[in-house]
Amino acid sequence: MPYCNTNGIKLFYQESGQGEPVLFLHGLGSCGEDWQDQIDAFSHDYRVITVDTRGHGRSDKPLGPYNMPTYASDVINLLDHLGIKRCHLVGFSMGGMIAFQIAADAPERLNSLTIVNSAPAVPYNTLSEKLEFCLRIAVIRLFGMKLLARIIGKRLFPEARQKSLYQRFITRMQGNPTTTYIEVIKSLIGWDVRPTLGNLEMPVLIISADNDYTPVSYKTEYANKISTANLVVINNSRHATPIDQPQQLNKEVFQFLESLA
């Protein structure tokens, strides 16, 4: 199996296709396999790389603590391991946060940046923000990953036609070790790279589902701080756009990458 040694752990990754490298970063509780619709679509024209970030999938799951700069460093070390100087980077949810951190720490490594249903910060200031984190952690500790998976799954895939997607999500989420998952959540609390947005010079595509957790207006607000950014809205989609609307997402990302060729 393909592994990369980085910062004291082993990262599992996979490659498909040839051409310009495109690296996909998954969300919290997910893994590289959840990009399968994108792997199938983009590997005809690009060198597609997926990775299980630390604490996920087949990568090592150290006890912690975790933090966003280390996640970014892991990915940069993977690029070095693969001999890739620059790539197109696509990040979904937590993967988008890692992508923002990489853009802040090593912008010279990116040909472009695509952010899907994500943000450049996870505020932890107001009472409601603190309660949201405390509630999720409490649910995990009291009831385990199974109940959390069902709660989130119903929000992501509420329609009858999405039953198979819901079941797949449940299976994936339940496979996450409780302790590791909590440590990953903690790594997000208070993280913020918004002050760096005005410095970004690579082409940026921001994709928002019309029914994501955070409204389109929120993405518009931070997109306006990036001079090279373009915002696209995917209709009839919730947070898991790469899975619930893969064709629409693939179309937008493919057009974006082709416009840069």
Question: How would you portray this structure in words?
Answer:
This protein is α/β, with parallel strands linked by helices and 261 residues long. The chain has one domain: Alpha/Beta hydrolase fold, catalytic domain (Rossmann fold, 3-Layer(aba) Sandwich). Helix content is 43%, strand content 18%. The chain contains 9 helices and 8 strands. Helix 1 links the parallel strand 3 and strand 4. The mean pLDDT is 95.
Secondary-structure map with pairings?
Layout: E1 3-6, E2 9-16, E3 21-25, H1 36-42, E4 47-52, H2 68-81, E5 87-92, H3 94-105, E6 110-116, H4 127-156, H5 163-174, H6 178-188, E7 204-209, H7 216-223, E8 229-234, H8 241-244, H9 246-260
Parallel strand pairs: 3-4, 3-5, 5-6, 6-7, 7-8
Antiparallel strand pairs: 1-2, 2-4
Helix pairs in contact: 1-9, 2-3, 4-5
Main attributes?
261 residues; alpha/beta; 8 strands; 43% helix; Rossmann fold
